[in-house]
Amino acid sequence: MTMASSSFPGRGDFSLRPGSPELFAPAATEESAPWESWRSKRALQQPSYPDSEALDSVLAELRRQPPLVFAGEVDDLRTNLAAASRGEAFVLTGGDCAETFSEATADHLRLKIQTLLQMAVVLTYGASLPVIKIGRIAGQYAKPRSSDMETRGDVTLPSYRGDAVNSFEFTPESRIPDPTRLLDLYHHAASTLNLIRAFTRGGYADLRLVHHWNRGFTANPAYARYESLAEEIHRAVKFLEAAGVSSAAQMRSVDLFSSHEALLLDYESAMTRIDSRTGDPYNTSGHFLWIGERTRGVDDAHVELLAHVRNPIGVKLGPTTSIDDMRRLVDRLNPEGEEGRLTFITRMGADKIRHALPPLLEAQARDGRPVTWVTDPMHGNTITSSTGYKTRRFETIMDEVTGFFEAHREAGTVPGGIHVELTGDDVTEVLGGSEQLDEEALRDRYETLVDPRLNHQQSLEMAFQVAEYLKKE
Hints:
By secondary structure, this protein is α/β, with parallel strands linked by helices.
Protein backbone atom coordinates (compact mmCIF):
# COMPACT_ATOMS: atom_id res chain seq x y z
CA MET A 1 0.00 0.00 0.00
CA THR A 2 2.98 2.30 -0.07
CA MET A 3 3.17 5.16 -2.46
CA ALA A 4 6.07 7.11 -3.94
CA SER A 5 7.86 9.42 -1.55
CA SER A 6 11.01 11.49 -1.51
CA SER A 7 11.36 11.25 2.27
CA PHE A 8 12.86 7.76 2.46
CA PRO A 9 14.74 5.34 0.23
CA GLY A 10 12.67 2.90 -1.79
CA ARG A 11 9.36 3.11 -3.52
CA GLY A 12 6.27 1.01 -3.02
CA ASP A 13 3.22 0.27 -5.09
CA PHE A 14 0.31 -2.14 -5.26
CA SER A 15 1.58 -3.37 -8.62
CA LEU A 16 4.69 -5.45 -9.20
CA ARG A 17 7.80 -3.44 -9.89
CA PRO A 18 9.40 -3.68 -13.33
CA GLY A 19 12.56 -5.72 -13.12
CA SER A 20 11.83 -6.78 -9.54
CA PRO A 21 9.57 -9.85 -9.53
CA GLU A 22 7.93 -9.58 -6.13
CA LEU A 23 6.06 -12.83 -6.50
CA PHE A 24 5.08 -15.10 -3.66
CA ALA A 25 5.01 -18.86 -3.68
CA PRO A 26 1.68 -20.41 -2.70
CA ALA A 27 1.08 -20.48 1.04
CA ALA A 28 2.66 -23.54 2.54
CA THR A 29 0.62 -26.35 3.99
CA GLU A 30 0.47 -26.92 7.71
CA GLU A 31 3.00 -29.74 7.42
CA SER A 32 5.69 -27.83 5.53
CA ALA A 33 5.55 -24.23 6.80
CA PRO A 34 8.09 -23.44 9.51
CA TRP A 35 5.88 -20.69 10.94
CA GLU A 36 3.18 -23.27 11.70
CA SER A 37 5.25 -24.20 14.75
CA TRP A 38 2.99 -21.79 16.64
CA ARG A 39 0.41 -24.57 16.83
CA SER A 40 2.51 -26.37 19.44
CA LYS A 41 2.55 -23.28 21.68
CA ARG A 42 0.03 -21.73 24.05
CA ALA A 43 -2.33 -19.60 21.95
CA LEU A 44 -4.21 -16.98 23.96
CA GLN A 45 -7.23 -14.90 22.92
CA GLN A 46 -8.25 -17.24 20.10
CA PRO A 47 -11.88 -17.86 19.07
CA SER A 48 -13.38 -21.24 19.84
CA TYR A 49 -14.90 -22.28 16.51
CA PRO A 50 -17.65 -24.91 16.85
CA ASP A 51 -17.03 -26.39 13.38
CA SER A 52 -13.40 -27.34 12.75
CA GLU A 53 -14.10 -28.57 9.22
CA ALA A 54 -15.60 -25.21 8.28
CA LEU A 55 -12.51 -23.49 9.68
CA ASP A 56 -10.19 -25.76 7.68
CA SER A 57 -12.14 -24.99 4.50
CA VAL A 58 -11.87 -21.24 5.07
CA LEU A 59 -8.14 -21.44 5.76
CA ALA A 60 -7.60 -23.44 2.58
CA GLU A 61 -9.45 -20.73 0.65
CA LEU A 62 -7.37 -17.98 2.28
CA ARG A 63 -4.15 -19.72 1.28
CA ARG A 64 -5.29 -19.47 -2.35
CA GLN A 65 -5.92 -15.73 -2.17
CA PRO A 66 -3.45 -13.14 -3.53
CA PRO A 67 -1.28 -11.28 -1.02
CA LEU A 68 -2.57 -7.97 0.31
CA VAL A 69 0.89 -6.39 0.54
CA PHE A 70 4.22 -7.15 -1.11
CA ALA A 71 7.69 -7.90 0.19
CA GLY A 72 9.30 -4.77 -1.27
CA GLU A 73 6.77 -2.55 0.50
CA VAL A 74 7.45 -4.32 3.78
CA ASP A 75 11.19 -3.87 3.27
CA ASP A 76 10.70 -0.15 2.63
CA LEU A 77 8.85 0.23 5.92
CA ARG A 78 11.56 -1.63 7.80
CA THR A 79 14.12 0.83 6.37
CA ASN A 80 11.95 3.76 7.42
CA LEU A 81 11.50 2.42 10.95
CA ALA A 82 15.26 2.08 11.21
CA ALA A 83 15.48 5.82 10.50
CA ALA A 84 12.97 6.48 13.29
CA SER A 85 15.07 4.45 15.74
CA ARG A 86 17.97 6.82 15.01
CA GLY A 87 15.88 9.97 15.40
CA GLU A 88 15.89 10.68 11.66
CA ALA A 89 12.12 10.23 11.27
CA PHE A 90 9.00 9.97 13.42
CA VAL A 91 6.28 7.31 13.36
CA LEU A 92 2.61 8.29 13.30
CA THR A 93 0.27 5.31 13.69
CA GLY A 94 -3.44 5.95 13.95
CA GLY A 95 -6.84 4.50 13.23
CA ASP A 96 -9.79 2.69 14.72
CA CYS A 97 -9.55 0.61 17.86
CA ALA A 98 -11.47 -2.05 15.92
CA GLU A 99 -12.53 -1.63 12.31
CA THR A 100 -16.03 -2.78 11.41
CA PHE A 101 -17.28 -4.18 8.14
CA SER A 102 -20.16 -1.69 8.04
CA GLU A 103 -17.80 1.31 8.21
CA ALA A 104 -15.40 0.09 5.51
CA THR A 105 -16.76 2.79 3.21
CA ALA A 106 -15.13 5.45 1.07
CA ASP A 107 -16.39 8.29 3.27
CA HIS A 108 -15.18 6.81 6.57
CA LEU A 109 -11.84 5.89 5.04
CA ARG A 110 -11.36 9.31 3.45
CA LEU A 111 -11.87 11.05 6.79
CA LYS A 112 -9.36 8.77 8.54
CA ILE A 113 -6.78 9.34 5.82
CA GLN A 114 -7.44 13.07 5.93
CA THR A 115 -6.85 13.13 9.69
CA LEU A 116 -3.58 11.19 9.36
CA LEU A 117 -2.44 13.49 6.55
CA GLN A 118 -3.19 16.60 8.58
CA MET A 119 -1.42 15.24 11.65
CA ALA A 120 1.58 14.30 9.52
CA VAL A 121 1.72 17.77 7.98
CA VAL A 122 1.66 19.37 11.43
CA LEU A 123 4.42 17.05 12.69
CA THR A 124 6.58 17.35 9.57
CA TYR A 125 6.35 21.11 9.27
CA GLY A 126 6.51 21.77 12.99
CA ALA A 127 9.41 19.43 13.80
CA SER A 128 11.26 19.33 10.44
CA LEU A 129 11.23 15.54 10.46
CA PRO A 130 9.96 13.01 7.89
CA VAL A 131 6.85 11.29 9.23
CA ILE A 132 6.21 7.58 8.66
CA LYS A 133 2.47 7.26 8.26
CA ILE A 134 0.94 3.95 9.36
CA GLY A 135 -2.78 3.29 9.56
CA ARG A 136 -4.46 0.94 12.00
CA ILE A 137 -6.28 0.02 8.86
CA ALA A 138 -7.21 -2.88 6.53
CA GLY A 139 -6.89 -5.62 9.13
CA GLN A 140 -7.78 -4.30 12.59
CA TYR A 141 -11.01 -6.30 12.74
CA ALA A 142 -10.30 -8.34 15.88
CA LYS A 143 -9.68 -7.36 19.50
CA PRO A 144 -8.52 -9.22 22.62
CA ARG A 145 -10.98 -9.16 25.50
CA SER A 146 -10.50 -9.24 29.25
CA SER A 147 -13.27 -11.85 29.60
CA ASP A 148 -14.46 -14.65 27.35
CA MET A 149 -18.06 -13.96 28.34
CA GLU A 150 -20.29 -10.88 28.58
CA THR A 151 -23.32 -10.59 30.85
CA ARG A 152 -26.24 -8.25 30.33
CA GLY A 153 -28.95 -8.61 32.92
CA ASP A 154 -29.63 -12.31 33.29
CA VAL A 155 -28.10 -13.27 29.94
CA THR A 156 -24.47 -14.36 29.49
CA LEU A 157 -23.00 -14.81 25.99
CA PRO A 158 -19.53 -15.00 24.41
CA SER A 159 -17.81 -11.61 24.23
CA TYR A 160 -17.71 -9.65 21.00
CA ARG A 161 -14.20 -10.13 19.61
CA GLY A 162 -14.47 -7.98 16.51
CA ASP A 163 -16.21 -8.38 13.17
CA ALA A 164 -13.59 -10.89 12.04
CA VAL A 165 -14.87 -13.29 14.72
CA ASN A 166 -18.51 -12.63 15.60
CA SER A 167 -21.19 -9.94 15.61
CA PHE A 168 -21.77 -7.13 18.11
CA GLU A 169 -25.50 -7.90 18.38
CA PHE A 170 -26.22 -9.48 21.74
CA THR A 171 -27.91 -12.69 20.61
CA PRO A 172 -26.74 -16.30 20.92
CA GLU A 173 -26.54 -16.69 17.14
CA SER A 174 -24.58 -13.47 16.60
CA ARG A 175 -21.96 -14.24 19.23
CA ILE A 176 -20.98 -17.68 17.84
CA PRO A 177 -17.49 -17.43 16.27
CA ASP A 178 -17.90 -17.85 12.51
CA PRO A 179 -14.82 -18.79 10.43
CA THR A 180 -16.36 -17.43 7.21
CA ARG A 181 -15.82 -13.98 8.73
CA LEU A 182 -12.10 -14.49 8.08
CA LEU A 183 -12.88 -14.41 4.37
CA ASP A 184 -14.97 -11.29 4.95
CA LEU A 185 -11.95 -9.80 6.73
CA TYR A 186 -9.72 -10.56 3.76
CA HIS A 187 -12.10 -9.05 1.20
CA HIS A 188 -12.78 -5.92 3.27
CA ALA A 189 -9.05 -5.45 3.77
CA ALA A 190 -8.46 -5.80 0.02
CA SER A 191 -11.13 -3.23 -0.87
CA THR A 192 -9.83 -0.87 1.83
CA LEU A 193 -6.29 -1.06 0.47
CA ASN A 194 -7.64 -0.33 -3.00
CA LEU A 195 -9.47 2.76 -1.73
CA ILE A 196 -6.36 3.92 0.09
CA ARG A 197 -4.37 3.69 -3.12
CA ALA A 198 -7.02 5.76 -4.89
CA PHE A 199 -6.92 8.47 -2.23
CA THR A 200 -3.16 8.61 -1.72
CA ARG A 201 -2.17 8.34 -5.38
CA GLY A 202 -5.10 10.01 -7.10
CA GLY A 203 -4.38 13.59 -6.06
CA TYR A 204 -6.33 13.77 -2.80
CA ALA A 205 -3.09 13.73 -0.79
CA ASP A 206 -1.52 16.49 -2.88
CA LEU A 207 0.45 18.74 -0.53
CA ARG A 208 -0.79 21.73 -2.52
CA LEU A 209 -4.29 21.01 -1.22
CA VAL A 210 -3.61 21.28 2.51
CA HIS A 211 -6.39 23.85 2.86
CA HIS A 212 -8.94 21.52 1.28
CA TRP A 213 -8.36 18.84 3.94
CA ASN A 214 -9.87 21.17 6.52
CA ARG A 215 -13.09 21.94 4.68
CA GLY A 216 -16.16 21.15 6.71
CA PHE A 217 -14.30 21.78 9.96
CA THR A 218 -13.34 25.44 9.61
CA ALA A 219 -16.47 26.68 11.39
CA ASN A 220 -14.89 25.52 14.65
CA PRO A 221 -12.41 28.12 15.94
CA ALA A 222 -10.19 25.31 17.27
CA TYR A 223 -9.01 24.72 13.69
CA ALA A 224 -7.64 28.23 13.24
CA ARG A 225 -4.16 27.02 14.16
CA TYR A 226 -4.20 24.41 11.42
CA GLU A 227 -5.43 26.98 8.91
CA SER A 228 -2.53 29.25 9.81
CA LEU A 229 -0.08 26.38 9.34
CA ALA A 230 -1.70 25.44 6.04
CA GLU A 231 -1.22 28.98 4.80
CA GLU A 232 2.50 28.83 5.69
CA ILE A 233 2.86 25.54 3.83
CA HIS A 234 0.96 26.93 0.85
CA ARG A 235 3.37 29.86 0.62
CA ALA A 236 6.39 27.55 0.96
CA VAL A 237 5.10 25.28 -1.81
CA LYS A 238 4.45 28.27 -4.08
CA PHE A 239 8.00 29.47 -3.46
CA LEU A 240 9.45 26.06 -4.37
CA GLU A 241 7.38 25.93 -7.53
CA ALA A 242 8.44 29.44 -8.51
CA ALA A 243 12.07 28.54 -7.85
CA GLY A 244 11.73 25.43 -10.00
CA VAL A 245 12.89 23.03 -7.29
CA SER A 246 9.63 21.21 -6.55
CA SER A 247 8.41 17.93 -8.01
CA ALA A 248 4.70 17.72 -8.76
CA ALA A 249 4.84 13.93 -8.63
CA GLN A 250 6.35 13.96 -5.14
CA MET A 251 3.74 16.42 -3.91
CA ARG A 252 0.79 14.48 -5.29
CA SER A 253 1.21 11.20 -3.42
CA VAL A 254 2.30 9.88 -0.02
CA ASP A 255 3.40 6.66 1.62
CA LEU A 256 0.75 5.11 3.84
CA PHE A 257 1.44 1.69 5.34
CA SER A 258 -1.10 -0.71 6.83
CA SER A 259 -0.90 -2.30 10.27
CA HIS A 260 -2.93 -4.33 12.73
CA GLU A 261 -2.59 -6.54 15.77
CA ALA A 262 -1.71 -10.04 14.57
CA LEU A 263 -4.27 -11.56 16.90
CA LEU A 264 -6.04 -14.28 14.88
CA LEU A 265 -3.29 -16.82 14.39
CA ASP A 266 -5.13 -18.99 11.86
CA TYR A 267 -5.66 -15.97 9.59
CA GLU A 268 -2.12 -14.61 9.96
CA SER A 269 -0.61 -18.03 9.31
CA ALA A 270 -2.72 -18.54 6.18
CA MET A 271 -1.66 -15.10 4.89
CA THR A 272 2.06 -15.84 5.23
CA ARG A 273 3.88 -16.44 1.94
CA ILE A 274 7.38 -17.23 0.71
CA ASP A 275 9.01 -14.40 -1.26
CA SER A 276 10.32 -15.82 -4.54
CA ARG A 277 13.24 -13.36 -4.55
CA THR A 278 14.76 -14.37 -1.25
CA GLY A 279 12.95 -17.46 -0.02
CA ASP A 280 11.97 -15.58 3.14
CA PRO A 281 8.48 -15.74 4.66
CA TYR A 282 6.45 -12.52 4.76
CA ASN A 283 3.08 -11.98 6.38
CA THR A 284 1.10 -10.46 3.52
CA SER A 285 -1.93 -9.36 5.57
CA GLY A 286 -0.27 -6.02 6.42
CA HIS A 287 3.03 -4.19 6.38
CA PHE A 288 3.46 -3.82 10.15
CA LEU A 289 2.11 -6.31 12.69
CA TRP A 290 2.10 -6.06 16.43
CA ILE A 291 1.67 -8.39 19.40
CA GLY A 292 -0.55 -7.18 22.22
CA GLU A 293 0.19 -6.86 25.92
CA ARG A 294 -2.02 -9.90 26.64
CA THR A 295 -0.32 -12.18 24.11
CA ARG A 296 3.38 -11.23 24.26
CA GLY A 297 4.59 -14.28 26.23
CA VAL A 298 7.97 -15.10 24.70
CA ASP A 299 7.19 -18.84 24.69
CA ASP A 300 3.65 -18.39 23.39
CA ALA A 301 2.13 -18.76 19.93
CA HIS A 302 2.00 -15.13 18.80
CA VAL A 303 5.71 -14.55 19.35
CA GLU A 304 6.48 -17.92 17.76
CA LEU A 305 4.57 -17.08 14.57
CA LEU A 306 5.93 -13.56 14.08
CA ALA A 307 9.49 -14.63 14.86
CA HIS A 308 9.43 -16.41 11.49
CA VAL A 309 8.34 -13.52 9.23
CA ARG A 310 10.37 -10.66 7.73
CA ASN A 311 7.85 -7.93 8.51
CA PRO A 312 8.75 -5.25 11.02
CA ILE A 313 7.16 -6.33 14.29
CA GLY A 314 5.76 -4.34 17.21
CA VAL A 315 5.21 -5.52 20.78
CA LYS A 316 3.03 -3.72 23.32
CA LEU A 317 4.74 -3.29 26.70
CA GLY A 318 2.65 -2.52 29.77
CA PRO A 319 3.75 -1.15 33.16
CA THR A 320 4.52 -4.60 34.60
CA THR A 321 7.07 -5.43 31.87
CA SER A 322 10.36 -6.51 33.42
CA ILE A 323 13.80 -5.99 31.95
CA ASP A 324 14.08 -9.76 31.58
CA ASP A 325 10.74 -9.88 29.69
CA MET A 326 11.99 -7.23 27.30
CA ARG A 327 15.41 -8.79 26.79
CA ARG A 328 13.89 -12.20 26.01
CA LEU A 329 11.57 -10.61 23.45
CA VAL A 330 14.56 -9.01 21.73
CA ASP A 331 16.40 -12.33 21.79
CA ARG A 332 13.45 -14.07 20.16
CA LEU A 333 12.26 -11.45 17.67
CA ASN A 334 15.46 -9.62 16.74
CA PRO A 335 18.47 -11.62 17.97
CA GLU A 336 20.85 -10.15 15.38
CA GLY A 337 19.85 -6.55 16.09
CA GLU A 338 18.54 -5.65 12.63
CA GLU A 339 17.56 -1.99 12.45
CA GLY A 340 13.85 -1.39 11.89
CA ARG A 341 12.85 -4.95 12.72
CA LEU A 342 11.52 -4.48 16.26
CA THR A 343 9.35 -1.71 17.69
CA PHE A 344 8.36 -1.53 21.35
CA ILE A 345 5.00 0.21 21.82
CA THR A 346 4.73 1.29 25.43
CA ARG A 347 1.27 1.54 27.04
CA MET A 348 2.04 2.29 30.65
CA GLY A 349 -0.61 4.74 31.83
CA ALA A 350 0.08 8.39 32.62
CA ASP A 351 0.49 7.64 36.32
CA LYS A 352 3.09 4.90 35.74
CA ILE A 353 5.17 5.79 32.69
CA ARG A 354 7.66 8.07 34.44
CA HIS A 355 8.88 5.30 36.74
CA ALA A 356 8.13 2.18 34.63
CA LEU A 357 9.71 3.23 31.32
CA PRO A 358 13.18 4.61 32.26
CA PRO A 359 14.61 1.26 33.50
CA LEU A 360 13.56 -0.41 30.23
CA LEU A 361 15.10 2.36 28.13
CA GLU A 362 18.37 2.22 30.05
CA ALA A 363 18.56 -1.58 29.87
CA GLN A 364 17.95 -1.65 26.14
CA ALA A 365 20.50 1.09 25.58
CA ARG A 366 23.04 -1.07 27.41
CA ASP A 367 22.04 -4.07 25.30
CA GLY A 368 22.84 -2.07 22.17
CA ARG A 369 20.51 -3.80 19.73
CA PRO A 370 18.35 -1.13 18.03
CA VAL A 371 14.70 -0.72 18.94
CA THR A 372 12.18 1.83 17.69
CA TRP A 373 10.33 3.21 20.73
CA VAL A 374 6.71 4.30 20.21
CA THR A 375 4.13 5.37 22.78
CA ASP A 376 0.52 4.18 22.91
CA PRO A 377 -0.99 6.69 25.35
CA MET A 378 -4.51 5.33 24.95
CA HIS A 379 -4.77 1.86 26.47
CA GLY A 380 -3.31 2.60 29.89
CA ASN A 381 -5.72 5.47 30.52
CA THR A 382 -9.20 4.00 30.07
CA ILE A 383 -11.85 4.92 32.65
CA THR A 384 -15.61 4.60 33.04
CA SER A 385 -17.63 7.82 33.20
CA SER A 386 -20.33 8.43 35.78
CA THR A 387 -22.79 8.03 32.92
CA GLY A 388 -21.52 4.52 32.21
CA TYR A 389 -19.38 5.13 29.12
CA LYS A 390 -15.93 3.62 28.61
CA THR A 391 -13.82 6.71 27.94
CA ARG A 392 -10.48 8.47 28.32
CA ARG A 393 -9.43 12.01 29.17
CA PHE A 394 -7.51 13.94 26.53
CA GLU A 395 -5.36 15.65 29.13
CA THR A 396 -4.40 12.29 30.67
CA ILE A 397 -3.53 10.91 27.25
CA MET A 398 -1.27 13.88 26.61
CA ASP A 399 0.29 13.50 30.05
CA GLU A 400 1.45 10.01 29.09
CA VAL A 401 2.88 11.39 25.83
CA THR A 402 4.72 14.02 27.87
CA GLY A 403 6.04 11.34 30.22
CA PHE A 404 7.24 9.32 27.22
CA PHE A 405 9.32 12.22 25.93
CA GLU A 406 10.61 13.03 29.41
CA ALA A 407 11.75 9.45 29.98
CA HIS A 408 13.64 9.38 26.69
CA ARG A 409 15.27 12.73 27.37
CA GLU A 410 16.41 11.48 30.77
CA ALA A 411 17.76 8.20 29.33
CA GLY A 412 19.36 9.81 26.28
CA THR A 413 17.33 7.59 23.94
CA VAL A 414 15.11 8.34 20.93
CA PRO A 415 11.33 8.84 21.19
CA GLY A 416 10.39 7.30 17.84
CA GLY A 417 6.65 7.79 17.46
CA ILE A 418 3.06 7.73 18.68
CA HIS A 419 0.40 5.05 18.26
CA VAL A 420 -3.16 6.27 18.83
CA GLU A 421 -6.76 5.26 18.35
CA LEU A 422 -8.51 7.93 16.32
CA THR A 423 -11.21 8.57 13.79
CA GLY A 424 -11.81 11.27 11.23
CA ASP A 425 -15.37 11.71 12.44
CA ASP A 426 -16.54 14.23 15.04
CA VAL A 427 -17.41 11.58 17.60
CA THR A 428 -17.68 12.32 21.31
CA GLU A 429 -15.81 9.44 22.94
CA VAL A 430 -12.82 11.07 24.69
CA LEU A 431 -13.34 13.71 27.38
CA GLY A 432 -11.63 17.08 27.32
CA GLY A 433 -9.64 18.75 24.57
CA SER A 434 -10.12 22.35 23.51
CA GLU A 435 -13.87 21.83 23.18
CA GLN A 436 -13.93 20.54 26.76
CA LEU A 437 -16.17 17.55 26.06
CA ASP A 438 -17.82 16.58 29.34
CA GLU A 439 -19.52 13.38 30.45
CA GLU A 440 -22.91 14.51 29.19
CA ALA A 441 -21.41 15.15 25.74
CA LEU A 442 -20.46 11.48 25.47
CA ARG A 443 -24.11 10.76 24.71
CA ASP A 444 -24.03 12.86 21.53
CA ARG A 445 -21.93 10.69 19.20
CA TYR A 446 -20.48 7.74 21.07
CA GLU A 447 -20.07 5.30 18.17
CA THR A 448 -17.20 2.97 18.98
CA LEU A 449 -17.99 -0.71 19.60
CA VAL A 450 -14.87 -1.32 21.71
CA ASP A 451 -12.50 1.48 22.81
CA PRO A 452 -12.97 5.29 22.75
CA ARG A 453 -11.12 7.19 20.00
CA LEU A 454 -9.82 10.71 19.56
CA ASN A 455 -11.99 12.68 17.19
CA HIS A 456 -10.66 14.77 14.31
CA GLN A 457 -10.12 17.90 16.36
CA GLN A 458 -8.47 16.13 19.30
CA SER A 459 -6.15 14.33 16.87
CA LEU A 460 -4.96 17.66 15.48
CA GLU A 461 -4.50 19.04 18.99
CA MET A 462 -2.28 16.07 19.80
CA ALA A 463 -0.21 16.60 16.65
CA PHE A 464 0.49 20.24 17.50
CA GLN A 465 1.58 19.35 21.03
CA VAL A 466 3.80 16.47 19.87
CA ALA A 467 5.41 18.76 17.28
CA GLU A 468 6.39 21.08 20.13
CA TYR A 469 7.96 18.18 22.02
CA LEU A 470 9.93 17.14 18.92
CA LYS A 471 11.34 20.63 18.50
CA LYS A 472 13.03 20.23 21.90
CA GLU A 473 14.68 16.92 21.02
